[in-house]
Amino acid sequence: MFAVQVLPRPEITQCLKRTASKIFESGGFIRRIDYLGTAYTPWKISSHDAIHKQASYFIVEFDVPSSAVDPFNNYLSRDIDIIKPSIFKVPENIPQPACTLHEELKPPAYRFEVKEMGAIGKGKREKEARKKVQFNTGLDYKPFQR
User: Which family does it belong to (predicted)?
Assistant: First the structure.
């Protein structure tokens, strides 16, 4: 994921081409590029002697050898168009629950996931109800009750 400073479309394209060519040079390949749009940053980001309040956000899913991650991260931090680079390792083979349109169209109260969350919440409430708070003050009366 990286945030690029707000630029005209041709310059953003050039920035993406530079980044993609660096991935290819390091022996990797790109699986997907998602453009998330231009938005305000959560806070002011200071990068390359400038303060940025808006950025264009991209998610680039790619595979590279592990030895090439540090040099690539270094390259991203030196690119003047990229405000904030972040590289995350995506775990492989994440099991996804089977989801059908029929299951999605059910009201929330009838969905399996919501029922499961309710059971978990109910179990926690029952445990908290069984706990009795005892204050060991050493007094045989309660001084703050009338």
Answer: Belongs to the bacterial ribosomal protein bS6 family.
φ and ψ of 93, to 5 deg: 55, 55
Contact 73, 94 (CB under 8 A): no
DSSP code for 106: S
Which ranges in the chain are annotated with CATH 3.30.70.60? 2-85
Q: pLDDT, tens digit, for every residue of 78-127?
A: 999 999 999 988 877 767 667 778 888 888 888 888 888 888 877 766 66
Own/partner pairs, 119-122, CB within 8 angstroms, 24+ separation: none
Topology of domain 2-85 in CATH is Alpha-Beta Plaits (3.30.70)
The answer to whether residues 84 and 2 touch, using CB atoms and an 8 Å cutoff, is: yes
Q: Which of 41-45, 92-96, 132-136 has the lowest mean pLDDT?
A: 132-136
Whether pTM exceeds 0.85:
no
